[in-house]
Amino acid sequence: MPGSPEPIVLPGHAAVPLDGHAAPLPGDAGPVLLALARAAIAAELGLQHRARDDLPWLRSHGACFITLMSGASLRGCIGTLRAHRALAEDVRANALAAAFRDPRFTPLAAGEFPAMALEISVLSGLEPLGFSDERDALAKLRPGVDGLVFEYGHHTGTFLPQVWEGFREPAEFLAHLKYKAGLPPDFWDREVKLYRYTVTKWREPAPGNG
Question: Which one in 60, 126, 132, 146 has a CA-CA gap of 20 to 30 Å to 85?
């Protein structure tokens, strides 16, 4: 889907069992996290950008996805599903990965930095979705709310809740997720596992619109 933030999960952090939910974030978390992500990318490019990293809540474990946009086009999207390190560390690592190591794009150049817009999605814990069959699973999905992890053997994939914007029906959403995981869109097996999660997200205003 053009412009949709289809994420790449960093190696070693694919589908996982139920995680504990992260502690609630403060009301001003968005600007702090966005600045932290931008500062990490700026430093890699030899540029300057101020950000706070001394706030106590940044040391709590958290998992996030970082999405880079160039105008209306996706420029990179990488993250982790499991909270396994400090949120500040996860933000920095995923910002650098999205900017410079997303295999779908060339590494971000310094000249692109001013026009780039960042979005950060902080994930809840993963919740196993119980279902009797595919129809039951589809009935339990919450369009626009649920991020979803699909797992079958070594086939895994995830869509952030934002990806619902490109689909009308849960069946279409799940079919594309199966395809992303390397399986036919009509595939189903009793060994399929699904995990859902929600996100709290913030996005920088597009350059020139702030």
Answer: 146
